[in-house]
């Protein structure tokens, strides 16, 4: 493959919960993608990307990766000097894995060990996740490695717990009335500060208790019922999850969406949840009747990602 494309990812379920060992479910999202390319660096975008790759290459120089993984950093640096850049339309700060796709692309091109995502074992996934965590921590301070793993695999992934992930089949799309969709909050979200707020909240016993006893339970039930295609129990748990987030994740909900979030809960026409760390970027919407929900969310930019 000459220039493999690396797609964005969407974390359907598990934001913040996966830090505390809940399950997570992620999908590749092919609307946004990126690939490594060479150019004469004529545009500002290309120049900036090339310069960022230079800084990242310095970070990689002294990095010792687990499980005997090695990257050909010398070749990476050589390619950067020849005009390598990451050509991507994945928006940054939108919770769809811009740094994950970049890390996956670099790993694919420069890792001495090669994989075929179709035949990869569960143990290898676990090892890769660790490696990707180290490679991506340059961008976020601390990374679980999940984002680059999804971008690299380009397959739906079930996060079973902190340590373990597996490939999973999601129900086939159908041309039904229901939909999962993205809403653009119109503002960029910063992962770092949002995660900081979460850890501050985790210092209070009451929050830790409700996270474990309610949030994680609803989150895992949503994943379970969605994969089994049991839509009625799925929406029941989804509403509980959305109410919980409205009560406890207020700082992470973009202000432009407060009222729309509440309106969905009051009318049961749709339910909203965070997509990634929140604070801006995209918010996820779920509805049994997309036409009706879209009418109620007029004025917001929306993109349907799954129909049922």
UniProtKB/TrEMBL annotation:
<dbReference type="GO" id="GO:0019287">
    <property type="term" value="P:isopentenyl diphosphate biosynthetic process, mevalonate pathway"/>
</dbReference>
<feature type="domain" description="GHMP kinase N-terminal">
    <location>
        <begin position="84"/>
        <end position="153"/>
    </location>
</feature>
<dbReference type="InterPro" id="IPR020568">
    <property type="entry name" value="Ribosomal_Su5_D2-typ_SF"/>
</dbReference>
<dbReference type="GO" id="GO:0005524">
    <property type="term" value="F:ATP binding"/>
</dbReference>
<comment type="pathway">
    <text>Isoprenoid biosynthesis; isopentenyl diphosphate biosynthesis via mevalonate pathway; isopentenyl diphosphate from (R)-mevalonate: step 1/3.</text>
</comment>
<keyword id="KW-0460">Magnesium</keyword>
<keyword id="KW-0808">Transferase</keyword>
<protein>
    <submittedName>
        <fullName>Mevalonate kinase</fullName>
    </submittedName>
</protein>
<dbReference type="GO" id="GO:0004496">
    <property type="term" value="F:mevalonate kinase activity"/>
</dbReference>
<dbReference type="InterPro" id="IPR006204">
    <property type="entry name" value="GHMP_kinase_N_dom"/>
</dbReference>
<dbReference type="Pfam" id="PF00288">
    <property type="entry name" value="GHMP_kinases_N"/>
</dbReference>
<keyword id="KW-0443">Lipid metabolism</keyword>
<dbReference type="InterPro" id="IPR006205">
    <property type="entry name" value="Mev_gal_kin"/>
</dbReference>
<keyword id="KW-0444">Lipid biosynthesis</keyword>
<keyword id="KW-0963">Cytoplasm</keyword>
<dbReference type="InterPro" id="IPR001174">
    <property type="entry name" value="HddA/FKP"/>
</dbReference>
<keyword id="KW-0547">Nucleotide-binding</keyword>
<keyword id="KW-0418">Kinase</keyword>
<keyword id="KW-0067">ATP-binding</keyword>
<dbReference type="InterPro" id="IPR014721">
    <property type="entry name" value="Ribsml_uS5_D2-typ_fold_subgr"/>
</dbReference>
<dbReference type="GO" id="GO:0005829">
    <property type="term" value="C:cytosol"/>
</dbReference>
<dbReference type="InterPro" id="IPR036554">
    <property type="entry name" value="GHMP_kinase_C_sf"/>
</dbReference>
């Amino acid at each position: 493959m000459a220039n493999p494309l690396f797609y964005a990812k969407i974390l359907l379920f598990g934001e913040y919960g996966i830090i505390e060992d809940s399950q997570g479910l992620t999908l590749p999202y092919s609307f946004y993608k990126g690939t490594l390319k060479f150019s004469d660096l004529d545009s500002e975008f290309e120049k900036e990307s090339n310069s960022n790759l230079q800084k990242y290459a310095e970070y990689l120089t002294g990095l010792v990766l687990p499980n005997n993984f090695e990257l050909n950093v010398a070749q990476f640096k050589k390619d950067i000097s020849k005009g390598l850049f990451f050509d991507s339309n994945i928006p940054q700060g939108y919770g769809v894995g811009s740094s994950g796709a970049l890390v996956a692309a670099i790993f694919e091109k420069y890792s001495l060990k090669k994989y075929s995502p179709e035949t990869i074992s569960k143990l290898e996934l676990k090892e890769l996740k660790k490696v990707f965590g180290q490679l991506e921590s340059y961008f976020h301070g601390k990374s679980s490695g999940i984002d680059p793993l999804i971008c690299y695999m380009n397959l739906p992934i079930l996060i079973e717990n902190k340590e373990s992930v597996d490939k999973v089949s999601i129900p086939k799309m159908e041309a039904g009335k229901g939909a999962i969709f993205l809403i653009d909050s119109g503002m960029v979200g910063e992962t770092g500060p949002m995660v900081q707020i979460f850890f501050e909240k985790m210092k209070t016993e009451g929050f830790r208790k409700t996270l474990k006893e309610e949030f994680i339970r609803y989150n895992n039930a949503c994943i379970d019922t969605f994969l089994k295609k049991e839509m009625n129990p799925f929406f029941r748990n989804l509403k509980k999850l959305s109410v919980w987030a409205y009560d406890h994740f207020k700082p992470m909900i973009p202000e432009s969406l407060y009222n729309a979030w509440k309106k969905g809960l009051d009318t049961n026409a749709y339910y909203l949840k965070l997509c990634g760390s929140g604070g801006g970027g995209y918010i996820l919407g779920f509805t049994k009747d997309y036409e009706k929900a879209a009418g109620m969310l007029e004025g917001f930019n929306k993109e349907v990602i799954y129909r049922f």
